Amino acid sequence: MSGPVQTFDVIVIGAGPAGSAAAATAARAGLRVGLVDKRTFPRDKLCGGLLTGRSTRAVEAIFDMALPPDQVLEKRDIDFRFRGRPAGTLEDAPAMYLTQRWDFDAALAARAVELGAADLTGRKVQGIEPEAGILTLDDGTRLACGVLIGADGVNSQVAAQLFGQAFDRATIGFGLEIETGEPPDPRAPVRIDFAACNRGYGWSFPKRDSTTIGVGGTLSRNDAMKDDMAAYLRALDVDEGSVKVKGQFLPFGDFRRNPGRGRVLLAGDAAGLVDPITGEGIAHALHSGRLAAEAAGKALAQGAPGRAFALYRAGLRPIHAELRMANLIKPLFYSPFFEPAFERAFRTSRSLKRDYMRLLDGQVSFGQIARRLVTRFPRMLWLALTARKGAARRRTGRATDT
């Protein structure tokens, strides 16, 4: 039996940063927008919770609000490691803002509703008819819209409806994470551990009342990630038995070249918009949500909701170009072949560490980083080949001894 029908210009599924940004943008443009999420807010969310300057600037521009000061801890010092070995520090990095995602996401969703979005959180989607722009909720309510924006995360129902699966298991990333539940030492820096797992990294992010610790990398290359997480916790003197480890798929650079179709658009993690080198996805989520809403508004104003995807894809080109460049140079950061050379370069170069943080902050692009790495590449290649030959000689020597 069909339930009542509610009609909107735009329906957004998912009230995380991408969905709330889309709903806020659409509402501020005067569109009738419904914000749907299966959970009520605040809700738990596996994420490091590090906000960069790029993310905070996006929040201010999209939501016309500043981050609640009691929810963030500002840090400018960072400790880099390779397999636990010190790789240098920065005490004057661009500002990083550490927050809990349940606070951050709840604030954004509440602001989107305040700006005019209809609050449909705590409502599960039972069925989606993407071509018709029709949703059915679990209580039988039917929603109709001109444009549907799927911002429902890496396990996106909307992406699965369009493409048969939400993501490709061969290329998707995966992360494990814990919360210590105890206030950290106020002097504790942000910590990044390259190679804490295979082709990935570990993180320790001190917050106001807890520390978020995790490891993440490509799922298909990390059969032993649980062991890597346990080793990382031991290295940080965290009692494994006192914390609950949670896991989540992470679209590290596994972005969809065509994130949508016709009147249906995918934003944020649902579109795979996560930096494959830094793992940062909040800034891209916010920007893509805004772009999706702007494309929806233009298409609806033209009386052609089916043109929304073409407009959206055009808007995403700069983000996609950055992610393609990041995927191109990712082996220099995470390939076992280049690891000894990159570790040496990163440890001895303050400018390389600073560029990494400026990249996170949005001050430099991957294109600029790539041009700088070109000048280092011959020496990195020579160091990598030398390290490989040395390892081969050591293996041969051990075999001879036995």
What does this structure look like?
With 402 residues, the protein is an alpha/beta fold. It contains 10 helices and 18 strands. The chain has helices at residues 17-28, 53-63, 101-114, 157-163, 225-235, 282-301, 308-334, 339-348, 350-361, 366-401, and strands at residues 5-13, 33-37, 50-51, 72-75, 78-82, 85-90, 96-99, 118-121, 125-129, 134-137, 142-150, 173-179, 190-194, 200-206, 211-218, 246-250, 260-261, 264-266. Strands 1, 2, 8, 9, 10, 11, 17 and 18 form an 8-stranded mixed beta sheet that branches. Strands 6-5-13-14-15-12-16 form a 7-stranded mixed beta sheet, with helices on both faces. Helix 1 (17-28) runs parallel beside helix 3 (101-114), helix 2 runs parallel beside helix 6 and helix 6 (282-301) runs antiparallel to helix 7. It starts with a strand and ends with a helix.
Summarize the topology.
Elements (H helix, E strand, L loop, with lengths): L4 E9 L3 H12 L4 E5 L12 E2 L1 H11 L8 E4 L2 E5 L2 E6 L5 E4 L1 H14 L3 E4 L3 E5 L4 E4 L4 E9 L6 H7 L9 E7 L10 E5 L5 E7 L4 E8 L6 H11 L10 E5 L9 E2 L2 E3 L15 H20 L6 H27 L4 H10 L1 H12 L4 H36 L1
Parallel strand pairs: 1-2, 1-11, 2-8, 5-13, 11-18
Antiparallel strand pairs: 3-7, 4-7, 5-6, 9-10, 10-11, 12-15, 12-16, 13-14, 14-15, 17-18
